Amino acid sequence: MTAGKSNRPKNPTNRPSYLYILLTNTGTAFSRLIQCFTNAPYNHASIALDSELNELYSFGRKTARNPLNAGFVQEDIYYGTYSYYQNTSCILLRLQVTRQEKEAVAAAIEQFRLEQERYSYNLIGLVGVLLNRDLEIPDAYFCSQFVAEVLRRGGLSLWNNPETGVLPPALVTPQHFHHDPRMEKVYEGKLADYPELDRHKLHASYAKRYQSRTAALKVN
After folding, report:
1. CA 40, CA 31: separation in Å to the nearest integer?
2. Which residues fall within 8 angstroms of residue 118, CB to CB, at 6 or more apart?
3. pLDDT tens digits, one per residue of 79-117
4. At residue 12, does pLDDT exceed 70?
5. Which residues contact 115 (CB under 8 A, 6 or more apart)?
6. Exposure of 66 by Cβ count < 10 A (0-12 exposed, 13-18 middle, 19+ buried)?
7. pLDDT tier at 1 (50, 70, 90 boundaries)?
8. For residues 24 and 130, which has the higher predicted lDDT (pLDDT)?
9. Main-chain dihedrals φ then ψ at residue 208, nearest 5 degrees
10. Rounded to an integer, what distance in angstroms lies between the CA atom of residue 189 and that of residue 182?
11. In 89-103, which positions are buried (b, 16+ CB within 10 angstroms) versus exposed (e)?
């Protein structure tokens, strides 16, 4: 061993910690309806604890074909709703945080997961966004409101303006994340082309979806 050098790995706590915000547009009728009002390229927000998007959370549809059956979800890029919409466009942003802040956000998400049956989707809150009114409903969230809320619980109130005050989570939209200068763009394009995804799992999920559709056509 060379004098003065060590082969021990660097302390992982010295590495930067990141949270990832995924903004997407699936192109569904519901997405197009929201886009008519917002005129924004992305209308759904999720938060991930890892760059591979294995730990991805939001408030959204629980089944791919029914947007009204919605609530807290751990989203699955490969076999969940996104697998039905392979042309989904996205932008992935990352926010550098301290290890303690990331742990606090993860704990907030875990609390939602443990109590997910009590929560519903905040459709009324979406109307409030259009009217610029804080229509916060107890135990109800829409996607970007949820992301803003877990960040807030982790000590990350991003939109705290000394002149206008704190923007409540119920008024946070995907556009707020998109245009926040603290967010670093990691990737933009088709979600299926994001290089950190597992290509084997992705191709397997597409094959499974194709087989399911073929089987359904034979039955009909």
Report:
1. 10
2. 139
3. 999 988 989 999 999 999 999 999 999 999 999 999 999
4. no
5. none
6. exposed
7. very low
8. 24
9. -65, -40
10. 20
11. bbbbbbbebeeebbe
- Residue 216: CB atoms within 10 A of its CB come to 9
Token pair of 175 as six digits: 């556009």
Count the Cβ atoms, other than its own, within 10 Å of residue 48: 21
Query: How high is the pLDDT of residue 212?
Result: 63
Written in H, E and C, the secondary structure of the chain is: CCCCCCCCCCCHHHCCEEEEEEEEECCCHHHHHHHHHHCCCCCEEEEECCCCCCCEEEEEEEECCEEEEEEEEEECCCCCHHHHCCCCEEEEEEEEECHHHHHHHHHHHHHHHHCHHHCEECHHHHHHHHHCCCCCCCCEECHHHHHHHHHHHCCCCCCEECCCEECCHHHCCHHHHHCCCCCEEEEEEEHHHCCCCCHHHHHHHHHHHHHHHHHHHHHC
How many residues can be counted in the chain? Answer: 220
Query: pLDDT averaged over the chain?
Result: 87
Structure tokens at 186: 């990691």
Nearest of 132, 200, 209, 214 to residue 167 by alpha carbon: 132
Pairing of strands 140-141, 120-121: parallel
| Structure tokens belonging to residue 29 | 């009728």
